[in-house]
Amino acid sequence: MKKILFLILLCICIFFLYRFTLKKENIFFSIGNERGDFSYNKENLKITEIKMSIYQNEEIKKTPIQQILVKSSQIQIDGNAFFSLSSYQGILEQLEDLEELFKILRKYCKEKIEFILLKGTGDKVSYTNKKISILCKKYDIIILR
After folding, report:
1. In 3D, which of 79, 105, 106 has the Cα closest to residue 94?
2. How many CA atoms lie within 13 A of 11 on its CB side?
3. Residue 42: CB partners within 8 Å, gap ≥ 6?
4. Strand-pair partners of 78
5. How would you write the pLDDT of the chain (145 residues) with one tens digit per residue?
6. Distance CA 109, CA 94 (A)
7. Single pTM value for the model
8. DSSP reduced 3-state for 63
């Protein structure tokens, strides 16, 4: 009986040591702003540049972007940094590019992705935000206002 209790106690100790030593690292990656541990923000940022950076596995702080996407526990995308509302045709092209970006992000990241909607008022802003909301629901992305 003492040997069984000793083995149970030993198993419990090993379990707790395992849980405390193998904690997952929380990495916060942001696109379009400077909030995260790693951030991707350039002047005149475009969606196609972001996609190309991911395909080419560009380095951010000496870490490949694909590795950052895989290890990130949270990704935040600020749409205000790269969306331009010049014409409806331009908006539609950007929405197609945004959907491709969401596909790429979901390929590498299964964790939480947040999207910050466009600020402002007007027909183009509300139209774009509605279309972005539909895309976010499709790819299981959280919408921040």
Report:
1. 79
2. 6
3. 49
4. 116
5. 778 888 888 888 888 877 776 655 688 999 988 888 898 888 888 999 999 999 999 998 899 999 999 988 899 999 888 888 888 899 999 999 999 999 999 999 888 999 999 998 889 999 999 999 999 999 999 998 7
6. 22
7. 0.79
8. strand
